[in-house]
């Protein structure tokens, strides 16, 4: 075995061993990088240099701002208003509260950018509400956790910023615009699945649709929805960068949460900032460690070898795209979202481009794959949160989620094989070049 092959085995083998042993992901990445550097005869003093280099990026400054914006808006009293808006729009349908759950997640996801925040915030309100109305608790939880993945696609999403940084040169504005239609496709797929199950189980309808009530709820929710408008229009229109828009959105979110919706007092603001710091510390240490890990991958020519291996299995773009999805789904079952994006993007993006996938389309594919991974054992963080919020056994929630996995896979395949779903909106808005 050559020295390069041995070092590759040490890097990837030790990483997966640490994952199986349930080491924290940042430690798994860092320790496997150290072992690899030792096997290559590199001075590990360069490790901190690689880590600092990984987070020394202006675009990454948007990440803490978007996280702060999501926490402030998520705890600032907007959940009830977005639920009421969704109810006025789709609550009249069979299984109306399930539809409300899905549509509210689309609205809320555009503010929080986090599936976990969506599940914790909306789930704590909607799951008990659905159970009280006669819905099965496991079905209610399944709807909540699967619809929360819409927030990963709908901008502003800090995961999109992380992908843009990892991919190098991909426009954050284009990624933001690319998420809207796939997010809607996912929502429609989940609504179709919910409707079929609601008819089968005779779940109730809500009140008839009222145009006056719909406009009334829009008036109440407009302040929350404007936060998304500020970010997306500002970035796509070239008024300011993603980082600048995120900073402005934080100030706006603070004003709306404290002075307009009055869901937060100043004590609550400080608590929210503490939560932001906890989340940010995890994200940044992952980015730093993954930068060093990625440097080892590059030195060992792993991306080129992976591309050669995958394309050697088949030259068919259809087969390669299916393989890429399968790899990402399997990674999602054992790893969290941010490390997958950071580690897999440099390896798989060249393969995706070799079969004609645009980097923006591949970014949407990757985010949705990772989102599905958040719902699957053994590392499904959103699955755990949903089970905890609903106080339901995880295995029963997984069973109830099986039909929704099918809906999500259908949406994933549509996004994978129909480029215009992801690229149409960025192109007509001028945010996509090429």
The major beta sheet can be summarized as: none
Total domains: 2
> What is the number of helical segments per DSSP (H or I, 4+ residues)?
22
SSE sequence, one letter per element: HHHHHHHHHHHHHHHHHHHHHH
**Pairing-aware structural class of the strands and helices?**
mainly alpha
C-alpha Rg (nearest Å): 22 Å
Tell me the strand percentage band: under 5%
Based on the structure, what is the oligomeric state of the protein chains? Answer: single chain
Overall pLDDT score:
84
Backbone shape: globular
Tell me roughly what share of residues is in helical segments.
over 70%
Total number of beta strands? 0
First CA to last CA: what distance?
42 Å
Low-confidence stretches: none
Report on this structure.
This protein has 434 residues and is mainly α. The protein has 2 domains: 1-44; 58-428, no CATH class. Helix content is 79%, strand content 0%. The chain contains 22 helices and no strands.
Which descriptors would you attach to this protein?
single chain, 434 residues, mainly alpha, 2 domains, 22 helices
Task: Compose a concise summary of this entry.
With 434 residues, the protein is an all-alpha fold. It contains 22 helices and no strands.
Tell me the layout of helices and strands.
Layout: H1 3-20, H2 25-40, H3 46-55, H4 62-74, H5 79-90, H6 96-112, H7 115-132, H8 137-147, H9 150-153, H10 158-167, H11 172-178, H12 180-201, H13 211-236, H14 242-260, H15 266-299, H16 302-313, H17 317-334, H18 337-354, H19 359-373, H20 381-390, H21 394-417, H22 419-428
Helix pairs in contact: 1-2, 2-15, 3-15, 4-10, 4-14, 4-15, 5-6, 5-13, 6-7, 6-8, 6-12, 7-8, 7-20, 8-20, 8-21, 10-18, 10-19, 11-22, 12-21, 13-14, 15-18, 16-18, 17-18, 17-19, 18-19, 19-21, 21-22
